[in-house]
């Protein structure tokens, strides 16, 4: 295909479906499977109110079980497609396709190498997931480009117009031998980006992605950035997130204007088995006509939902219970990957 007009769409552009993988006893969710399945069922019900959902399952037994839970949660089953494939875990933001499209409506599934977040976890099956979905016919005639360079979808944010936002902490961990200039060139080529914006500050305790941007700061329509702030000076995150806020304030749009910033409230510390969990409100998902927002059972949940809705005007705001997810160090955005309109065959 002629790729001269390929670009990485913004998440708020029209979508065909959302892609997830169902948790099961062979994943790291095994010890708390019933709890996390409540989140997946609620997510399925929320997504199918607005668009289709593609669910990867390992076998027919898990499919039947998942279908029962989804039905009980009130999901629209006619909008759900199941695909049977092997996978190591369910973080499809990072193992799913990063989809580019051109002006003619043709697609390229960009398949970066997935290493289990820098070799922290086994990832051989997850790294083969995109090829498996292609072979299953999920993506119609879309082109498939494999790039042998580690990058996860949660590590990048696109404004749909050629600007990509990422974090140095994450990509330096993945590629310590490469300079920022080296990475700029690879990201520009692989994502057809015209600008790469970097954050040097920002992290969440309990996050093993090495500061994925989708836990910290998100582009929103109208040159907005929604970001996770911390207003508790006694919290160990305070200084780092204050510095990140200053970095965001210093960023400029492609035409030289500052971004409109929307700081999110800070949830109280959530401690589980002696460790703090990463409860980020920035880890929300945009779908057609709505924005799905993580809720943690915290007093800040409603204010976070209000601010995210304000940054995405004209969309319904739907809260999804995500406290079970952060036990495994991710949240709502991390377990999903949106598929642009026209992609799903």
TrEMBL record:
Hydrolase recorded as keyword: yes
Protein keywords: Hydrolase
Pfam families: PAD_porph (PF04371)
Domain of life where this protein originates: Bacteria
Gene3D superfamilies tied to this protein: L-arginine/glycine Amidinotransferase, Chain A
Keyword Zinc carried by entry: no
GO biological process terms, semicolon-separated: putrescine biosynthetic process
GO terms of molecular function: agmatine deiminase activity; protein-arginine deiminase activity
PANTHER family per UniProt: AGMATINE DEIMINASE-RELATED (PTHR31377:SF0)
Protein name per UniProt: Agmatine deiminase
Species annotation: Dyella thiooxydans
